[in-house]
Amino acid sequence: MFDTFKNRxxxxxxxxxxxxLRVSSGRSLExxxxxxxxxxDALGYPLIPGSSFKGALRSRLESFLRGVFSGVSETHxxxxxxxxxxxxxxxxxASEMRALKTRYTDDRQYTDDRQLxxxxxxxxxxxxxxxxxxxxxxxxxxxxxxxxxxxxxxxGQYQERDGVAIDRDTETAADGKLYDFxxxxxxxxxxxxxxxxxxxxxxxxxxxxGLHQFEREQIPLxxxxxxxxxxxxxxxxxxxxVNPSSPNELLTxxxxxxxxxxxxxxxxxxxxxxxxxxxxxxxxxxxRRRSPQPTTPVNDVS
Length: 302
What we know:
Strand order of the largest sheet: 3-7-1-8
Number of strands: 8
Shape: globular
Order of helices and strands: EEHHHHHEEHEEEHEHH
Number of helices: 9
Largest sheet: 4 strands, antiparallel
């Protein structure tokens, strides 16, 4: 899947907190301080792990596809939308993978692993083809999100809030259940950068669908979401698209890459919209192709 370079989409932008954000680093062991501090980088600035962003994006897209394929049997569904938290619902389970490796290697009837790779790709669900699985690398990579220009946008303004469990009988704070937690305030900008490589058009459409949800504040991040925390807004600033159609075009791109002259691959707004439309059309075509065919309605007999 990555043995030959085919294309690359680079996306940069800003992820801004609309409400306070809590991405916890776990309970603090310090004798003095906040019980539940937020995650920080080496310089003490707040940090959103790329895995948190990617996981929330993946979960939302999984929910969409489960709706699209709601008429599919559970056995077939895992080959369309796997559940990464339940091994029995993976598109290829660990036991199946062990059997495949035995079949394609121990028999010594194949000279390379191409057939094994092809089998994995053919049986991997749609989401895992983009976001990866235990047997398949992810095509989509997100950097950890750090404060955008901290010299101007961050002054150590962490907020601390109280949390408490209520005793149902007395309707007061339960003994030993009072704690405090740290949040990053609203209007804090984080730098966003992601890369998608060797993607099919429908896979790029799937990514655009998910990012659009972040642009519309539809995917919260972190903990405390029932309290109203974690609403974020993504603003995409730049998209660079590399899709060489010949070895010479790839050589030209490599030279520009070394010289750090990539403006030729920067998409303007019209180009972005045209490609988004093209990729979304490819996604809808792929989903319709894989959806179960509706049964022909029986006419009512009066």
